[in-house]
Fold each of these.
Amino acid sequence: MKLITAFVFGVTFALGLGLGGMTQPAKIIAFLDVGGAWDPTLAFVMGGAVLVGAVTFPWALRRRKALLGDNFVLPTASAIDAPLLIGAGIFGVGWGLSGYCPGPALVSLVTLSPPILTFVAFMAAGQYLGRWLVRPSAAQEPILSDAG
């Protein structure tokens, strides 16, 4: 059941990205072009996501356990350090140059276009390299469990 639910939520997310135009790099680059032909569409998509999160997160965290899982796992790290800033900078530069972030890039794989295949290959290589360079810490621990 969890696999089916994850698939349905994934398809819903992919459809939302596609319908919102977030799989079109030109839309993303136009959003970042605040001095030129600025396109505010992305701001509305992000605003909708923030609104849904603002309503559902407090409700979900009041539950004893996750609706479809055993516990909630949230990050506990709160430091703003060099790895965070470097990673955010790399993400931002990649997003600004390509017009893709990971979610829309994966959704766009269905097109099988060489630019998106290249982007996803380099994105995967960057994730692998990042995991190899920076060993994970105990930044994620369950905050609620069945015993909790």
Amino acid sequence: MKLITTIVGTCSICEREIAVQRGDLVHHGYQRPGYGFIQGDCFGVGYAPYERSTRACLNYQALAKANARHLQEEIAKLESGATTYLVQHHYRPYGSPSKDEFALGVTDPAIWAYQVKREITRLKAEKNLEEYEVGRMNGLLERWELRELGSETRAGAKERAEREARAKERAEKKAVRDAKRAALDAKNAAKKERAEALQAKYKEQLEALVEKAVATDAVNSPATRAAALALFAAFEKEAKGGKGLPVLHFHVQDFKWDHLLLQVGLAHREANDWLRLDIWTVN
């Protein structure tokens, strides 16, 4: 079997290792670091790799600077009111592209003001990206030094691609797991907060009931017991949630409300001093 070796070099634009033929980088797509995938040829196609030359960096930086200047000019026109016509193009995965047109003095003033603001925001975002690319090229130019190109066999290239694909798959699965875990943690935190708030609310009401019973000499009376049962019925109804809220489940013995329950007649001491509750759970 014939061993085929590929010469590889770093693309100055997308900063990936790309095959080199006759001294220049071969066709490859452009993936701007941190900004997703762009279809088509990378700007670095046909240039010498970064290890050999900074020409791609310089040309790409000049283009980014020119784009940033043009975008700033368009922003200035919009902010000064010099722009009187706007077009918004819509590109869909399926079907023909469409556009919306707006004109000063023709379009409703409120809609025109909104569209101008929206266009300024869009252009500023694009300008920030271009300026980021200028800075990124500055970093590459400052760090540049002449280096040897690398090489790998076709089998090695395939193995590296497979390894990178597996790493990407693991990263995507981890991101999904992390998102699910974060959502669950947030849900549990909200549930805990609601449970603590409900417990505090009804403890306060129970304390008020006991205070009233003490003041009226009605501790452990049938009327006080009936009021306490009504209070726990309301507690249970609220704990059942509804409207997207989860059902909450409480063990009354965990509340440590023994002295309150004794005074409202919902608990009593047995001969062995064991406390018997009339209400064990709220759910």
Amino acid sequence: MIGLFDSGLGGLSVWREVAKELPSQSTLYVGDQSHVPYGPKPAETLVRYSEGITRFLHEQQCRAIVVACNSASAAALEPLRRTFPDTVFVGMEPAVKPAAARTKSGVVLVLATPATLKGELFAATTARFAQGVTVIGEPCPGLVEEIESGGGASEKAEAMLRAFLARGLAAGADEIVLACTHYPFVIETVRRLAGPGVEVIDPAPAVARQLRRLLREREAGGAAPTHRFLTTAKDARAFAHAVRDLTGTDPVTGCLEWTALGGLTEVSVETS
């Protein structure tokens, strides 16, 4: 089984690609909606949340885990690999490398959360792959919350995106990197506002391909795969509706709650 986790619904953009690339694999998705958004939180807090979720996924027999959140990947991916050395981890990396290779104007705009832009992973990726390219990191406060609430197609979301794009487009950016897993759910609005001649990069397909490469030798067929989606919110019903709308699946959902020791326990299950 493959485990995936995010602060909320954003990692479902990665889940879609994983399910497409590895159709025989069962999955277990955890959306930590009681703590959404992750972006403004300190790195040590994100490490604590990520370790708690990973321990739960281990208990559920997940043999590979996708950290389907840019903020959590920036803060916790390396600590997770040290703490759980026998687990296959795949995280999110800002797609600066392909953007820098493809840009003709020499300007790349990265839409991200503050945690991603402040993280060592973003700095290292930019330093390694974007020599001679101007990389503009644009924090997008409030956008995750708007998407979580179902407002990705709203006029408010469009106005926010217009403001977040303004600086980079004015500087001549012809490559836009979506460095938060929530943002692919507004990718069509970003493309429309950016206009022709600007490429918008969603890294989720590349993450799914990397996971397939890592698991190729161990991929098994047999029984039909199962997919469960769990939330740390108190009510799974709204979560179930969002999962159905965003993935096209008929989900089995449930609720988790955080224990006093920082672990997770399942408290309800709902078949939608």
Amino acid sequence: MAELTKKDSTNELPMFDIGEAIKIATTIHDKGLELASLPEVAKGCGYANATSTPFYRRLAAARLFKFVGTPKPGLTKIATDYLKPSAEGAKQAALTQAIMGIKIYADIVNQHLGRKINLELVTNGLEKEPGLQISRACAKVCASTLEKSLKIAGFISADGTVAIPVTGGVKITPPITGDLGADGNGDEKGKVKNETGYYTYTLPLAGGRKITVNAPLDVTQAEIERLNKWTKFTLFLDWKEEGSQSEIN
């Protein structure tokens, strides 16, 4: 069988960051273009026509982040929650849902929790992803776009590591899913789609050990502080001399 030709662009992942997606959604909202045709939307956004590559890819990103619907460019609930938040934390919850609603993004976030994004490794992974069939150049753009989107959406901590932003107790719906099987319900590893907005996170430890946590994304700061206190009393801390760091068994 002949090898499939790799593409220099993709509609499966954003090639423009979430900030550009927000700009498109904001323009559609401000100019009342939700029921307009795509040529009208393109002109309203400052582009000559709907086939303009910069416009087309920005619109594709807005749809992948679920800020804009299809075929009509109506605003989604995520876009409405971001542009007109009705509760404290709703804006961040919308950003979190937009990021984690893209399966490959959710997988990469989960793999990098507590670590810095390695663009070279992410690029390699995207280039080799069988479902994408994209070129190295395209993979680099998608990886860079992911990193920018994570920064904009608050997924990069002050120390440069990846973390899930606190949403102030706001529920995130529809549920955010992790690594699911083809039927959408689970895979051979037992990762199951959770209908209540929970997500399974894995924290790698030394010696091949790991901690797995099944937790919601709508966690408040007070709950995080309570969790920290609970962890100190529940897990056995084995203090090591090297670097004066503790290691959890």
